Amino acid sequence: MAAVSVKYLLLWPLLWLCVRESETENSRVFSDDDPLRPYARGHGPSHSHRHVRDCLSVTGGNTAHETRTPPHHGGDPEATVFVSNVPGSSRWVYGHMTVVPDPLRQLSVLEPGQPGGCERPQRVSVEETAGAAGCLYAQNAGFFNTESGACLGNVVSGGRMVRDSGGVQNAQFGIRRDGTLVFGYLSQEEVLDRSNPFEQLVSGVVWLLRNGEVYINQSLEAECDETQETGKFRTFVDVVSGRTAVGHDAEGRLVLFHIDGQTGVRGMNLWEMAASLRSYGVVNAINLDGGGSSTFVINGSLASYPSDHCKPDSRWRCARHVSTVLCVHRRPCQPADCSGHGVCTANGCVCDAGWRGDNCSQECLPGFYGDGCNQTCACVNGGSCDPVHGRCSCPAGFHGQTCENVCALGFFGPACLQECVCDHQCPCDPQTGSCNATLRAETNHTLHTAGRCLANQMFTLWRREEEEHREQPRLTERAWVLLSCSLAALLSLSLLLHLLRACRGAACQREPDGLDYSYVPLTHINGDAGKSGFQVDDSDSQDEIWSPSRSGRTTSKTSLIAQTPAECNL
């Protein structure tokens, strides 16, 4: 058991030595043996911006810089690799060119490592800085002090002033808040301008191209000074080395240019660099830090060939730790919630229907709606549509899905919900409700047509009501005919009977010849007068009728009763 323990104790030192060797191989350190510094003492020329402006007035007018406001380009950044023969020489160069369509939103100047890296100061590899920031493509940018690591020149990162050079006149590249690209020489007042401040700014050395023309000679005059390891400023321009530059093309797209090389061995000088940029259509461009600092990174991985030797094994080449970095990234979302009207994606804010803008803070323009605000509203008569769904909101006096209808007569106002209040129920203005309104010709025609229609309907209704209220006969016409015929028949029969009776009565009243009369005393008819106590008054007696009797006797105060034939006694 003790032998086993001793065996394990002897293995631990060996294991530790293997781990240390592995760590040493994987953490190779660059040697910083390929410097390319433009100035021997400090950084930048000692003369003022006025001197530079006066020096360049012949070719640049009254300004010592150029500006370009790029149009809003869509799309993503794109990087290409090239291997080219240098005209006029037998050299071949390897490099990268990156095109950024929307510089304001797709490019940032980063401090080394993280925000505050220039204040520490510190130097960090482009890989580390780009990986932490999520850069699609990245390359080294500004110059730095190789001994202290301090950033040199002007540095503005994300709208924050990191370093002010105090007016030192070197070629500058910047992007202002409105998206304007700036190339050239700037005064301190222009650097600190707050009306349209810089969002990104970094200093280079030598203005390579100005308005499509090589501008190196003018830059030599404006930025001239002695250099350190490579000798005079002219040597800095003429020496072959790794190079890095930034510019823009005729369309306003930003162009990043990187050339692999080693000072005095391979790469390009600035004259060749300017000619190459010009051949790619670049209009304005400045030179950035080069030599062993020239580095290009894709998605956090080194894509270039460094020139500094590694430590401790010089057989390998290691990427140098640098200061500032140009980071090409996807459009960020500012604010992160896209103003509450969109979704943040890798390509920026994707706005909800009815909203637009980089941060989805603006509604669709009047007359448009929907996703991307690319659908046209169909509202008429001054109606406005909902920017999300396109529903029309009609002005006063109109209604309908597209506001195509005028309010019906007698109504006015928004949605035609208010009723006119005019004498005699007259119509009013459909928008204001005013009773003193001049109606349109179409409305007058409608009123005329409607009046005729209403009049006909009213007369028809009145006739119908009269007929409904008229007293209906109890008997039908046929019943009246039958009844009339029946009554006429009865009347005829009655008349016939009366005529028959009249005729018979007339026949009985005729007195026939030899008619016998009988005289009967009233006493014989009425009974004994003495018994009844009744006496006939002479004055009241009927006229006496005298008639001879067969006996020859006369009777006074007798009544004559005629004896009629039996057939008359009906």
Oligomer: single chain
Number of helices: 13
Query: Helix proportion of residues, in percent?
Result: 25-40%
Q: Which band does the percent of strand residues land in?
A: 15-25%
Trace the largest sheet across and list its strands: 3-4-16-15-17-13-14
The parts where pLDDT drops under 50 for at least 5 residues are 1-9, 15-27, 226-230, 529-570
Task: Let me know the number of strands.
Answer: 36
Shape: rod-shaped
Mean pLDDT: 81
Alpha carbon gyration radius: 65 Å
Helix and strand composition category:
alpha+beta
Q: Report the span from N to C terminus.
A: 180 Å
Biggest sheet descriptor: 7 strands, antiparallel
Give structural notes:
Residues 531-570 are annotated as: Disordered. It comes from Champsocephalus gunnari. Residues 1-24 form the signal peptide. This protein has 570 residues and is of the alpha+beta class. Among the domains are: 27-328, no CATH class; 406-438, no CATH class; 518-568, no CATH class. The protein has a seven-stranded antiparallel sheet with strand order 3-4-16-15-17-13-14. The longest helix has 33 residues, at 477-509.
